[in-house]
Each structure stands twice: as structure tokens, then as C-alpha cells.
Amino acid sequence: MIDYRPLTPNDGPLVESLFGTNGACGGCWCMHWRIATHGAAWKAAQGEPNRVALMGLIAAGAVHAVLAMRDDVPIGWCCFGPKDSFPRLMQTKGLQRDSARRVWSIVCLFLPRGARRQGIGTGLVAAACDAAFQAGADEVEAYPVPTAAGATVPAAFAWTGVPAQYDAAGFRSVGRPGGRLIYLKV
Fold first, then answer.
1. What are phi and psi of 123, to 5 degrees?
2. What's the rounded Cα separation, in Å, for the pair 63 and 77?
3. Phi then psi for 64, rounded to 5 degrees?
4. 155 burial via Cβ count (<10 Å: 0-12, 13-18, 19+)
5. Sign of dihedral through CA atoms 151, 154, 155, 161?
6. Please, are residues 51 and 30 in contact by the beta-carbon 8 Å criterion?
7. pLDDT at 4 over 90
8. Which residues pair with 173 in a beta bridge?
9. Of 63, 125, 160, 181, which alpha carbon lies 20 to 30 A from 167's?
10. Domain architecture of the chain: domains with CATH
11. What is the CA radius of gyration of the chain?
12. What confidence tier does 148 reach under pLDDT thresholds 50, 70, 90?
């Protein structure tokens, strides 16, 4: 049985145990979209600085995320929030589209190796959408990594999810308005 639940300010230790010493992927600690510029700024933040920053944001209640739990053990993470709360996302021209509505974005999915290919990612996406709409979103965007039919994507490159997860959660593709794949749920 898997329970999908919102992140709480006390969940920092659960997130640390889920992400492991590598911070989910190369020291990211789900901070990629929160750091306005990359290059030298990103290199300096990777690892411990990102971990400290994320733990501080979680403790302050400033992170929107859902956890997938099995027997009180975290087995998945999905981070989302108002699109304009992610500086790097707002600066990525290929992920912009016109909308006069309150847009929230799903920016990160993390599943450790033993939790992949079981539908948990789709469950996380659905739970994140429910939480976003309850918090005031008019629409939720996602930016999955394109995959060819039957192909797999290495986990390190699928941190925004894959189209099948969003299709199963009721999203529709709005194409590539700025060059990158954008999915939408209203």
C-alpha cells in the first residue's frame, strides 16, 4: 500500500533519507529551478549548499511537494509550486507560454531505483495536481522528457518525468511552444 501525502515542515529527515548522500541527482537536492543562474552559481551550490538550502526551505514550510510512502518509508518525491516561484524556470524561454491564469508547475520527480516502473510516479503527479489545485492553481504545467515509443530514459535525465506519467494523470500536450515539451492540466 502506498500513501501519497503532502510534505510537512518536519519532513526534512525523510527527504534526506530518500535523496541519499548524492542529493537525488548529482547534488541537486531539488534546487535546479530555484537558482536563477547556472554555470558558476550552480556549481558552487551543488551538494552540501543545496542540501542546506532545501532543508531550510522545508523547515520554513516554503516547499510544495508530495511524498510517496510505503510502510512509513519515503519511496518517492514530487515537487511543484507557482511557476513564478522558480526563477530558473521563469528564465527558460523554451518553457514559456501565454496564460492569464494562475499557473503552477511540477518541476521534479524522484524515485529511487526500487520504486520505478510501478506507477508511483503517476501517483505522485496526480497527488501534486490535487494539492496544486487545492492551493489555488488554475492550471498545472509539466515539462516531461520526450521519449520514443518503447524507449527508456536514464533516470538521471528523467527528473521532470516522462510523457506517459502525465498522460496517465490526465494532462494533455500543448506541444513545444518554445521548443521544449509542455504538458498541461486544467
1. -60, -40
2. 12
3. -95, 120
4. middle
5. negative
6. no
7. yes
8. 183
9. 63
10. 3-185 (3.40.630.30)
11. 15
12. low
